């Protein structure tokens, strides 16, 4: 009799664990096993320009400097951000941060494609690289008030009360600023919350290895709240 009860508890426990794991949102990606092919001249030129114009904030090789510039040399960032995202960020900058706009800087503007190529080349340094599928057309729906509570619980400490980022004194970037929200799609923000950003204080919050294991509704609410800040 005791054996049967024990067996029943084990079966129920396994069942509950399975259901719990199924409730964790999985992020679509594809493993990239071949290096990205880039123009060697562009990469070489981009490296020179990066060291002159970008390294003072983003660090040598793009490792980031807390309080100054975000880490760009991260498999999660490179797996989520496409070339257009990187190019537009360099062109338009991030108002309210140390990231200046280079759209009208003639000496830098002509080198932007080289910078993009150099930044993209970093993904070849990673033994395992995941390219995440980001749908720019998705417009998420959610509850702003619930999202605000979620943001205050999980995001405020690093990103500031209303997403000010480094200017608030935290280790997180300005995700509530227009410069970020103008470039980042809803799905990009959602997947960043889900998978985090390796090599930074940004841990995953909605993945199998997540800290809080937020479900999709909770994450959608946070994204909708961030969008409302603009």
Any key phrases for this structure?
Cytochrome Bc1 Complex, Chain D, domain 2; mainly alpha; 230 residues; two-stranded antiparallel sheet; 12 helices; disordered N terminus; single chain
Question: What topology does this entry show?
Answer:
Blueprint: H1 2-23, E1 29-32, H2 40-53, H3 55-58, H4 75-80, H5 83-92, H6 106-109, H7 112-121, E2 129-132, H8 144-154, H9 156-159, H10 178-181, H11 186-195, H12 216-229
Antiparallel strand pairs: 1-2
Give an overview of the whole structure.
This protein has 230 residues and is mainly alpha-helical. The chain folds into 2 domains: 31-132, Cytochrome Bc1 Complex, Chain D, domain 2 (Orthogonal Bundle); 134-229, Cytochrome c-like domain (Cytochrome Bc1 Complex, Chain D, domain 2, Orthogonal Bundle). The chain has 12 helices and 2 strands; from the N terminus they run H-E-H-H-H-H-H-H-E-H-H-H-H-H. The chain has helices at residues 2-23, 40-53, 55-58, 75-80, 83-92, 106-109, 112-121, 144-154, 156-159, 178-181, 186-195, 216-229, and strands spanning 29-32, 129-132. The protein has a two-stranded antiparallel ribbon with strand order 1-2. Helix 2 crosses helix 7 and helix 8 crosses helix 12 (216-229). The longest helix is centred in the N-terminal third of the chain and has 22 residues, at 2-23. The N and C termini lie far apart (63 Å). Residues 1-22 have low confidence and may be disordered.
């Amino acid at each position: 009799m005791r054996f049967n009860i024990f067996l029943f508890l084990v079966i129920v426990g396994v069942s509950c664990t399975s259901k719990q794991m199924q409730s964790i949102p999985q992020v679509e990606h594809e493993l990239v096993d071949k290096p990205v092919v880039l123009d060697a001249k562009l990469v070489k030129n981009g490296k020179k320009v990066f060291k002159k114009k970008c390294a003072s904030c983003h660090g040598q090789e793009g490792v980031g400097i807390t309080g100054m510039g975000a880490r760009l040399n991260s498999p999660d960032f490179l797996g989520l951000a496409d070339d257009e995202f990187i190019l537009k960020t360099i062109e338009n900058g991030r108002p309210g941060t140390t990231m200046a706009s280079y759209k009208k800087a003639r000496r830098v503007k002509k080198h932007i494609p080289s910078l993009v190529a150099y930044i993209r080349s970093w993904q070849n340094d990673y033994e395992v690289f995941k390219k995440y599928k980001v749908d720019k057309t998705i417009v998420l729906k959610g509850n702003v008030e619930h999202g605000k509570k979620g943001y205050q619980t999980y995001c405020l400490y690093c990103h500031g009360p209303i997403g000010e980022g480094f200017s608030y004194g935290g280790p997180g970037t300005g995700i509530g600023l227009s410069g970020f929200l103008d470039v980042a799609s809803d799905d990009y923000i959602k997947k960043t919350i889900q998978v985090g950003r390796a090599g930074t204080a940004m841990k995953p919050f909605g993945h199998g290895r997540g800290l809080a294991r937020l479900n999709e509704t909770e994450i959608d609410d946070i994204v909708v709240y961030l969008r409302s800040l603009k």
